[in-house]
Amino acid sequence: MHPITAVQSEYSLWSREPEQNGVLAATAELGIGFVPYSPLGRGFLTGTIRSLDDFDADDYRRTSPRFEGGNFQRNLALVDTVQALAAERGIAASQLALAWVLSRGEHLVPIPGTTRRARLDENLDAL
After folding, report:
1. How far apart are CA 68 and CA 71, in angstroms?
2. In this protein, which residues make up the domain named NADP-dependent oxidoreductase (predicted)?
């Protein structure tokens, strides 16, 4: 039997279940790596998504409960807060969101997705 060396789960300012269910604390205590996927909230925490029209017609996020109806507007309020805090520090919202994830423990290795070189550079600047 091999020991568990890493656990992957969604984790961001927007999705904090690993804190609430004890997974984050357990991985830290046991010396297990934690690999947060979607640390930028499926792109939402970047501040570049302001309406459903910002998604392509076939984008899966159009049908996600987080982006439907009143949820979209409530989640925009979180993004606005992230953007305001980032602006105070002279950084991009994505950098603040990613830096926050990185600050949660040395055992975290987030995997932000990107398709653009400029976004990759921006993410690296969060380090």
Report:
1. 6
2. 3-127
CATH superfamily of 6-124: NADP-dependent oxidoreductase domain (3.20.20.100)
User: Within a 13 Å sphere around the CA of 24, how many CA atoms are in the beta-carbon half?
Assistant: 20
Return the C-alpha torsion angle 6, 12, 15, 20, nearest 10: 60
User: In angstroms, what CA-CA distances link 18 with 3, 11, 21, 35, 83?
Assistant: 20, 7, 5, 11, 24
User: For the segment 52-81, what is each residue's pLDDT rounded down to a tens digit?
Assistant: 888 888 888 888 888 888 888 898 999 999
Q: Exposed, middle or buried, 13 (CB in 10 Å: 0-12/13-18/19+)?
A: buried
Q: Which two tokens stand for residue 84?
A: 């305001």
Q: What is the pLDDT of residue 122?
A: 67
Give the C-alpha distances (Å, rounded to integers) separating 35 from 50, 84, 110: 28, 27, 5
CA atoms within 13 A on the CB side of 99: 15
